[in-house]
TrEMBL record:
Predominant subcellular localization, coarse grouping: membrane
Protein name as catalogued: SusC/RagA family TonB-linked outer membrane protein
CC per GO annotation: cell outer membrane
Biological source species: Hymenobacter qilianensis
Keyword Zinc-finger belongs to the record: no
Taxon lineage: Bacteria, Pseudomonadati, Bacteroidota, Cytophagia, Cytophagales
UniProt keyword list: Cell outer membrane, Membrane
Subcellular location field: Cell outer membrane
Keyword Membrane applies: yes
Positions of the UniProt region annotated as Disordered: 562-585
C-alpha cells in the first residue's frame, strides 16, 4: 500500500566543428513507473469515524474492511481499503532530442537549422477488486473492474533561421529572419471490462472479464506555422534598441481566426559605459536602464475545440415502440474563439558593483491578458457530455514589482554566493465577455474589479456568548437577524441589511492569489565540493480549507480534528460554535445546526509559507583521477533533497496547493501534497 515513483534517465550531448560548419545534438531518454493514490485518501482519512475499524473480519461482502453503518453513520470511504482494493499505475517512456546545424557563409551571415522531437508512449492501468468499502455501496458480480489506457504522443519542430550580425564601427546590427513548422499527433485507446469474480485471486487483463469489453479511442493532430523576425541595434554597446515581430498560425482555431500577429520592442541604456560614470564611480561595473513592451499569443486549448461533436447513432422511441435512428450533439463547440493575447510592459534597472560580485535587478511590470481562453463549467441542462467549450472570457491584469539581489565571490579556492528575489502581484479582472457577467464556482466568484476566483462567502463574525448578544444582533429596522440562535452558535454579518442570513450576504475576499512570492538561495564550493540550497515562500493569500469545513461541522456524522474544541458553557470559544447534530428536536435546533455548518469565511486560513525547496551537496572527482579513464572528462557524485522543511500556520496537508480549476486556485480539497524527496546520483562527462 502506498505510492511509488521510479524514473531512469539517460542524457547524451555531443558536438563538432569543421571549418564554417557546426553541428550539435542532445538526447534524453526517460523511463518512469508510478503507483498513484486511489480516490481521495486525505479527505477519506479525516472523514472516517475513529470508532470504525480499518479491518473488519465480519464484514458481509467479504472485503474485510470497516466502513460506516447506522451505528456509526458516515459515507466516507475507508482510505486503507481504497488503496488495497483499487490499484492505479502509470508506465511511460519519453524521448526528447534536438539537432542543431549552423553554416557560416561569412563572418557576419549564417544559416541555422534546428530540429526538435519529443515522443511519449504510456500505459495507464486501473483495477478494482470485489468488496464494499463505503456504507450502502451497491454490490454485484460486475463490481470488480479493469481499465487500460494506452497512448502515443509525438511532437516535431523544424526551425530555419538566417542570422545577420555585423559591426559597422561603433554601430552593431543583428537581424534574424525565421520560419518554423510544428507538428503534433496524439493517439489514445481505452478498454474497460467488468466481472472479474469475487477473489481472492484476480486476473486483470481485458479479455478475462465476463462482459464484452468497452473500447474507445481517439486520434488527433495539430500544427503551427510561424514567421518571425528580430532586429537589434546598439551604439558603442551603450544604447540598445530591439524590435521583433511574429505571425503564428494554429490549427486549433477555425480558419477565420487561425492567425495572430505579435510583436515586441525594447530600449536599453547602459549607463555604466558612459565616460562620466566610469570616472566618477569606477566601482560600478554595470548600470543599465531598460523599458520593454510586447505581446505574446496563447493557443493551449487542445485540438478540434472549435468543432462540435455529433453522435449519429442515437436511438429514440416514438409512438410507443417505433425505434428511430437520429443524431444528437454531445459536445458543444467553442464558437468564435481566437488567440489569447498577453500584453506586457516592463520598466527595469540592472546594477552590478565590484566587478559584478554584487548585483541587483529591479522591475515594475504590468501584464494584461486580453481575450483570455477559459473553459468554465456549464449548466447540466445544456447536455454537454464531452469536453467543456472554451470562450474568450475577457481581460485580466497582473501588475507588481520584481526585485533580485545577489552576491557571488569566486576570487579564491573557496567560492560562495547568496541570492534573493521578491515578486509582488495584484490580479484583477478588467472585463468579461458579457456586461455584468459573474462566473460562480463553488465558494469563489469571478467578476470585474476582483481577482480571478476571489472567495465569495458569508462573513463569519464570531460566536454568540450570551442570549443578550443574540437579541441585540439586529438590522437597522430592529429585526433580530438570527432568531433561531442561542449562546454558542455562529454569528454572521447581515451585509445587505435585510434582517436574515442567506446567500445574498456573501461578500468578496480578494485573497485567493498570493500577493508576494520570494526566494532565498545560497551556494558554496571548495576543491571539488559544492553545496547549494533554495528557500521559497509566498504570503498575502488565504486558502479555503475544505477538509476543515468537513470536520468542523457537527450536523453530519464525521471525524473531528484532534484539537477540535467547540463552544461549551464552561469553556466558551469565539471561533468554534457549539456541537449540534442535525435533525434536532425543535426547528430552532435544526436551523442552528445547519447555520453553524455553513461554508463561510470561518474556513479561510492564512496560506503563507516558507519552504526549504531544495538542498544539494556534491563532489567532483579531480581530473588527475578521472583523466586516467579514457574518454571520461569529469565525474560528479551528488545528493539532493526536495521539500525538506516547511514553516506555515496553515492546518492543511500542504499550503502550496495545486487546484486545476482556473476559478478555484485558492480552494484546498486536500490534494496530494508535495513529496519530500531525497535523490543520489552520478554525473558523467565524456
Amino acid at each position: 500500500m502506498g505510492t511509488d515513483f521510479e524514473r531512469y534517465t539517460l542524457r547524451l550531448n555531443s558536438g563538432l566543428t569543421a571549418g564554417r560548419f557546426k553541428l550539435s545534438e542532445s538526447l534524453q531518454l526517460a523511463h518512469a513507473l508510478t503507483d498513484l493514490p486511489s480516490g481521495a485518501p486525505f479527505q477519506d482519512a479525516i472523514r472516517l469515524l475513529p470508532t470504525i475499524p480499518v479491518y473488519d473480519p465480519t464484514e458481509s461482502t467479504g472485503s474485510g474492511f470497516g466502513y460506516g453503518s447506522p451505528a456509526a453513520n458516515t459515507f466516507g470511504t475507508n482510505p486503507v481499503a481504497s488503496q488495497l482494493i483499487r490499484d492505479e499505475s502509470q508506465y511511460n517512456n519519453r524521448l526528447q532530442g534536438s539537432v542543431n546545424a549552423e553554416y557560416a557563409f561569412f563572418d557576419f551571415l549564417s544559416y541555422k537549422l534546428n530540429l526538435g522531437v519529443e515522443t511519449l508512449d504510456y500505459v495507464d492501468r486501473n483495477s478494482r477488486k470485489y468488496g464494499r468499502i463505503t456504507q450502502n455501496q451497491p454490490q454485484n458480480e460486475y463490481q470488480s473492474t479493469y481499465q487500460e489506457q494506452r497512448g502515443d504522443n509525438s511532437f516535431l519542430i523544424v526551425e530555419n533561421i538566417l542570422d545577420f550580425n555585423k559591426q559597422f564601427g561603433d554601430h552593431g546590427i543583428n537581424v534574424i529572419l525565421g520560419y518554423s513548422e510544428q507538428r503534433g499527433k496524439n493517439t489514445f485507446s481505452r478498454g474497460l471490462n467488468r466481472g472479474y469474480g469475487t477473489g481472492p485471486s484476480y486476473n486483470f487483463v481485458l479479455s478475462a472479464g465476463t462482459t464484452s469489453p468497452e473500447v474507445t479511442g481517439t486520434d488527433s493532430e495539430y500544427s503551427k506555422r510561424s514567421y518571425f523576425t528580430q532586429a537589434v541595434y546598439d551604439y558603442k554597446n551603450r544604447y540598445l534598441v530591439t524590435g521583433s515581430f511574429r505571425r503564428d498560425g494554429s490549427s486549433r482555431f477555425d480558419p477565420d481566426n487561425r492567425y495572430g500577429n505579435f510583436g515586441a520592442a525594447s530600449l536599453g541604456w547602459r549607463i555604466s559605459e558612459e565616460d562620466f560614470l566610469k570616472e566618477s564611480a569606477p566601482y560600478i561595473s554595470n548600470l543599465k536602464a531598460r523599458v520593454s513592451y510586447g505581446v505574446n499569443g496563447n493557443d493551449a486549448i487542445g485540438e478540434y475545440r472549435y468543432q462540435g461533436v455529433i453522435n449519429q447513432n442515437a436511438n429514440y422511441v416514438f409512438n410507443g415502440n417505433v425505434i428511430t435512428v437520429g443524431s444528437i450533439q454531445t459536445t458543444i463547440p467553442s464558437q468564435g474563439i481566437k488567440w489569447e493575447s498577453r500584453f506586457t510592459t516592463n520598466y527595469g534597472i540592472d546594477l552590478g558593483l565590484f566587478e559584478d560580485r554584487l548585483t541587483m535587478s529591479a522591475d515594475y511590470y504590468t501584464s494584461r491578458t486580453e481575450d483570455a481562453l477559459v473553459n468554465p463549467l456549464l449548466p447540466i441542462y445544456l447536455g454537454n457530455a464531452g469536453t467543456r467549450p472554451f470562450v474568450n472570457i475577457g481581460d485580466i491584469e497582473n501588475k507588481g514589482f520584481e526585485l533580485q539581489l545577489g552576491y557571488q565571490d569566486n576570487r579564491s579556492a573557496f567560492t560562495y554566493g547568496v541570492t534573493g528575489n521578491l515578486t509582488t502581484v495584484k490580479n484583477e479582472v478588467l472585463r468579461l465577455s458579457q456586461e455584468g457577467q459573474s462566473i460562480p464556482s463553488g465558494v469563489t466568484r469571478t467578476e470585474v474589479g476582483h481577482p480571478v476566483g476571489a472567495f465569495f462567502l458569508i462573513p463569519f463574525d464570531g460566536v454568540f456568548q450570551t442570549q443578550e448578544e443574540v437579541t441585540r444582533h439586529v438590522n437597522a429596522d430592529g429585526r433580530v437577524i438570527q432568531p433561531y440562535a442561542a449562546p454558542g452558535d455562529a454569528r454572521y454579518r447581515d451585509t445587505n441589511g435585510d434582517g436574515q442570513i442567506n446567500d445574498s450576504d456573501r461578500i468578496f475576499y480578494d485573497t485567493s492569489i498570493p500577493k508576494i512570492q520570494y526566494g532565498l538561495g545560497a551556494n558554496a564550493g571548495f576543491k571539488g565540493i559544492d553545496f547549494s540550497l533554495l528557500f521559497q515562500g509566498s504570503g498575502g493569500n488565504e486558502l479555503f480549507n475544505v477538509a476543515r469545513a468537513t470536520m468542523d461541522r457537527t450536523d453530519d456524522p464525521a471525524n473531528f480534528r484532534a484539537d477540535f474544541t467547540p463552544w461549551r458553557p464552561d469553556a466558551p470559544s469565539s471561533t468554534t460554535p457549539r456541537a449540534l447534530q442535525g435533525g434536532g428536536t425543535t426547528a430552532n435546533l435544526r436551523e442552528a445546526a445547519a447555520s453553524n455548518a455553513r461554508g463561510s469565511s470561518r474556513f479561510l486560513e492564512d496560506g503563507s509559507y516558507l519552504r526549504l525547496k531544495n538542498i544539494s551537496i556534491g563532489y567532483t572527482i579531480p581530473e588527475s583521477l578521472t583523466g586516467k579513464v579514457k574518454g571520461v572528462s569529469n565525474v560528479r557524485i551528488y545528493v539532493t533533497g526536495q521539500n525538506v522543511l516547511t514553516f506555515t500556520d496553515y492546518s492543511g496537508p500542504d499550503p502550496e496547493i495545486v487546484n486545476g480549476n482556473f476559478f478555484e486556485r485558492g480552494v484546498d480539497f486536500s490534494s496530494f501534497p508535495n513529496l519530500r524527496t531525497f535523490t543520489g546520483g552520478i554525473q558523467l562527462g565524456f
